[in-house]
């Protein structure tokens, strides 16, 4: 498995972390390959359905030959889920909350742990467990003003808003101006339309636009 700093550098370098789940493993694979061809070197598959673990194992088996590609797993809520996906080959772990036991497990393996935080206390707790990158969730509730208000309390900490980030210049510019290191991109990038209609050309176009805006706004 890659060292946590390598994955962190990859996420920050691309400026965004795509995330999605679909119960169809073949469609999931097609989506990931489309994102990779559009320049995505790492993304988060989310643990949001009964097929997630089986799908993840399949995806890892099919993606092992992609150069410098890292597949993380998100929506991890306890140590059993974390261990199951670590055993399945997860390159890093993303959580919706600050679960200290999960953080300790992941960090003991020198893997990147990305916990979800909503308050300064949660951020401080996450830092105490070694979180190098913190997910601000839900970002549409917290807003850019939250980052601006707390960033001086946590100098050097990397933040990534997730939930409601738009593929729109004003929105992306405001997040990076506030001080985030990357943005999480879920349904605004990998939309229901993309998944329902297998609109992979649309996905490739949206990804290129997201990269253009991030480069412009960082």
Summarize this structure briefly.
The protein has 218 residues and is of the alpha/beta class.
Secondary structure blueprint with pairings:
Elements: H1 4-14, E1 16-20, H2 25-37, E2 42-46, H3 52-63, E3 70-74, H4 79-87, E4 92-94, H5 100-108, E5 112-114, E6 116-117, H6 120-128, E7 133-136, H7 139-142, H8 144-150, E8 158-161, H9 169-178, E9 183-185, H10 192-196, H11 200-217
Parallel strand pairs: 1-2, 1-9, 2-3, 4-5, 6-7, 7-8
Helix pairs in contact: 2-3, 2-11, 9-11
Name the strands of the widest sheet in spatial order. 3-2-1-9
Class per helix and strand makeup? alpha/beta
Task: Write down the overall mean pLDDT.
Answer: 97
Strand proportion, as a percent range, falls in 15-25%
Low-pLDDT ranges: none
Task: Please give the share of residues in helix.
Answer: 40-55%
Gross geometry = globular
N-to-C span: 29 Å
Evaluate the radius of gyration: 16 Å
Number of beta strands: 9
Count of helical regions = 11
What are the secondary-structure elements, in order, as H or E?
Answer: HEHEHEHEHEEHEHHEHEHH
Quaternary structure annotation:
single chain
Question: Biggest sheet, open or closed, and with what strands and sense?
Answer: 4 strands, parallel
How would you describe this structure to a colleague?
With 218 residues, this protein is an alpha/beta fold. The protein is 49% helix and 16% strand. The strands form three sheets. The chain has a four-stranded parallel β-sheet with strand order 3-2-1-9. Strand 4 (92-94), helix 5 (100-108) and strand 5 form a beta-alpha-beta unit.
């Amino acid at each position: 498995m890659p060292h946590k700093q390598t994955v962190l550098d990859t996420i920050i370098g691309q400026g965004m972390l795509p995330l999605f789940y679909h119960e169809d493993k073949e469609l999931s694979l097609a989506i990931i390959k489309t994102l990779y061809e559009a320049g995505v070197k790492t993304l988060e598959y989310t643990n949001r359905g009964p097929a997630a673990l089986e799908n993840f194992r399949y995806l890892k088996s099919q993606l092992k030959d992609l150069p410098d590609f890292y597949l993380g797993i998100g929506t991890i809520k306890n140590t059993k889920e974390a261990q199951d996906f670590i055993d399945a080959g997860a390159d890093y772990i993303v959580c919706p909350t600050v679960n200290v036991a999960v953080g300790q497990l992941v960090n003991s393996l020198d893997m990147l742990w990305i916990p979800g935080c909503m308050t300064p206390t949660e951020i401080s707790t996450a830092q105490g467990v070694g979180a190098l990158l913190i997910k601000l969730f839900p970002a549409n509730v917290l807003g850019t003003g939250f980052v601006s208000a707390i960033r001086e309390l946590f100098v050097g900490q990397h933040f990534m808003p997730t939930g409601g980030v738009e593929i729109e210049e004003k929105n992306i510019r405001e997040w990076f101006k506030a001080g985030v290191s990357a943005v999480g991109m879920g349904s605004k990038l990998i939309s229901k339309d993309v998944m329902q209609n297998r609109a992979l050309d649309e996905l490739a176009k949206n990804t290129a636009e997201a990269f253009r805006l991030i480069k412009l706004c960082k």
